[in-house]
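Researcher: Quick sanity check before group meeting.
Model: Go ahead. Protein one:
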Amino acid sequence: MPTSLPTPSPKPPRRQSSRTPSRKPLAYGVGVVVAAALFGYVSYRATAPDSPGAGSSSSVVAGVTAGPDEDLYRELAGLARRDAGDKLALGRADAPVVLIEYADFACGYCGKFARDTEPALVEKYVDAGTLRIEWRNFPIFGAESEAAARASWAAGQQGRFWEFHRAAYAEGAKEKGFGEDRLKELARQAGVPDLDRFVRDADGAAAAAAVSKDQEQGYGIGATSTPSFLINGRPVAGAQPTEAFTQAVEQAAARAEKPGAAGQEAQGSASPADATPSPGAAAASPEKGSAPRAGGLASPGEGFAK
């Protein structure tokens, strides 16, 4: 069952808390604003406990393919950065399919996806040049989540993001928390060469800005829980079975091969990723089917294990 949205806490010094609400408009196109309702709908379809086959690949794909026209999907596909130098991405920058993941290191279902599904996608699609995975830090569990997000970015500055990602999502890792000493230990496990620089980077303004940018992008498209995904602009909510992702990736690859408008979604006709939405959006609930940010749609379903 869903858990109510946590009571907002005072924002910490020098950093914007993920739980601090914002009433400022987001600098996204109209299509992406409409997508907020779509993401809420997909989240509902994927997690509603009373729906037939909830959580199955068929229900997820139905939710993903229903709704707005191809123009909206192409606008959402434009959120892919496709930066060959992106240290928080895997795969070719020109891969026909881009999966964007909005996730929190303190999220149990994010860890399940990282351990059970992502390695299969990397082996089958990333290594073959079909798929690119782009990570977006989307901390929603409070101060330690934000600290872990900044630490992951700092590890990435030394080329060890995915090693940090693996260590942070190892079985039982999140139960140990993400305090300062623990994050340094995870960096050590990840093989970060300069731990003093890691600590400075994690506590710096650049890390906070990078995390805020990712977080606001997630809020801007209506993501209400973790993990949330875009696969060439089509939303998928929750740590669905591996078959749901393989089906979605293969469908996206097939569409990308077609000529015309539908086949252009892999590159994205719009580039809302360059927008700079306002910081300080309200936090989403740390639930697979959680209460959304103000103005979104409710998404009933099973909660994430903390």
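Researcher: Fine. The other one?
Model: Protein two, sequence then structure:
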Amino acid sequence: MSDAEASTEGATGADPLLDTEGVAAKIGVKDGATVRVYLKRTRARAAKGLPVRSQDLPLPDQQVGRSPAWHESTIDRWIASRPGRGRRPAEP
């Protein structure tokens, strides 16, 4: 299943699922490859037993085949709490 299919399959109207391309568009990065790098970093922290920080991409809400998918509300909450350049310092 492609990322594009993941964005439409399982959508619940009010809180649709976003694939890596959908997350990329929402946060303003070039493409889904960037989101996959962010996810790889989050999974590496989790594998080491470290907590997921506010700047880390949340772990996916679902897997659609081999594709990660997040509810739009999950990404919206992450964007709202994510440290940005000049807003506040990142957590250690």
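Researcher: One line on it for the slide.
Model: The radius of gyration is 13 Å.
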